[in-house]
Design a protein that fits this description.
Layout: E1 2-3, E2 8-10, H1 12-25, E3 28-32, E4 43-46, E5 57-62, E6 65-69, H2 71-77, E7 80-88, E8 102-110
Parallel strand pairs: 1-5, 2-7, 3-6
Antiparallel strand pairs: 3-4, 5-6, 7-8
Amino acid sequence: MTEATSQVSATPAAEALIAELRERHGPLVFHQSGGCCDGSAPMCYPRDEFRIGAHDVYLGDIGGEPFYIGGAQYERWAHTNLIIDVIEGRGSGFSLEAPEGKRFLTRSEVCSIPASG
């Protein structure tokens, strides 16, 4: 596992949902794998039920819970600030917010890219 210098934050709506999920399920962990379909969305799991991989990158905490991104995905998003939001709709059946009729969504802000040279 690698620690990144990128940043991740959450909107107030996402933080409120995180607090609700933590109350119901205990400590949480977020992971964004970069796989197809729902794999490219941030997924929320009970912390003790998800194994962090050797190539996953820790971006920081949102709502007091750790957020990781897959190493290959991180290479593409390294110069981006991730902003985790929540919208109405059904996400993946594996993510804890799915039964709530809501889903986490990644928005982004591009950071300056260091000049090579």
